[in-house]
Structures are given as C-alpha cells and as structure tokens.
Amino acid sequence: MTPTRPLLLTIPDAAAEIGIHRNTLYRKIAAGEIEAIDIAPPGSSKTRIRVPRAALEAWAEGRPRIVDTSDRRPSGR
Fold first, then answer.
1. Which residue among 25, 38, 53, 67 is buried most deeply as judged by most CB within 10 Å?
2. Can you tell me the distance from the alpha carbon of 35 to that of 28, in angstroms, rounded to the nearest whole number?
3. Can you tell me the distance from the alpha carbon of 32 to that of 27, in angstroms, rounded to the nearest whole number?
4. Could you give the angle at the alpha carbon of 39 between the alpha carbons of 37 and 41, nearest 5°?
5. What is the pLDDT, as a whole number, of residue 68?
6. pLDDT tens-digit readout, 23-70
7. CA neighbours within 13 Å on the CB side: how many for 4?
8. Rounded to the nearest 10 degrees, how much is the dihedral formed by the CA atoms of 50, 39, 34, 10?
9. Strand 37-38's sheet: what is its strand order?
C-alpha cells in the first residue's frame, strides 16, 4: 500500500518539503507568496497554520528554472 501524503502540512513539514527554513516559509506566507490557512476553531485565541500541499506545488511551479536539461546530451565519459 502506498503511504498517503497529507493534504495540509504543518509549517515545519511544509518548510522541509521545499527545503527552506521555517522562518523563511513564514516570510513567504506573510508576503503572499505561499498560501496558508488557519485551521483553529472560530473564536480561538491560538492559530493553527497549515499549508496546503497544492500551494507548495503551485509555488514551486512558478519558480524560475535555472538549468534547462532538456537538450543536454551525455558527455560520453
């Protein structure tokens, strides 16, 4: 059986998923670069921030490509 991947990720898990520090993720959320939601009950004084996996995927898709390997050929070594 294939393990299921959670739909919503905690901040530490989301940061690890895309290879950045959690503080960097908080900054990207604050800047509106990555979507996040608060799953705390209405009226709660605490927040429970989660990042949808789809938001991470959308962010990654929008990142510039640094190296285009589509036309690379083996060096023959």
1. 25
2. 9
3. 9
4. 140
5. 65
6. 999 999 999 999 999 999 999 999 999 999 999 999 999 988 887 666
7. 4
8. -10
9. 8-9, 49-52, 37-38
**Amino acid identity, position 60:** A
Question: Residue written as tokens 């670069």?
Answer: 33
Among 36, 23, 34, CA closest to 59: 34
How far apart (Å, rounded) are the C-alpha atoms in residues 44 and 31? Answer: 24
Q: Which residue has the tokens 């299921």?
A: 4
Helix, strand, or coil (residue 30) = helix
Residue with tokens 């285009």, as numbered in its chain = 68
Amino acid of residue 8: L
Amino acid, res. 46: K
List the one residue out of 58, 52, 55 whose CA is nearest residue 8: 52
pTM: 0.76
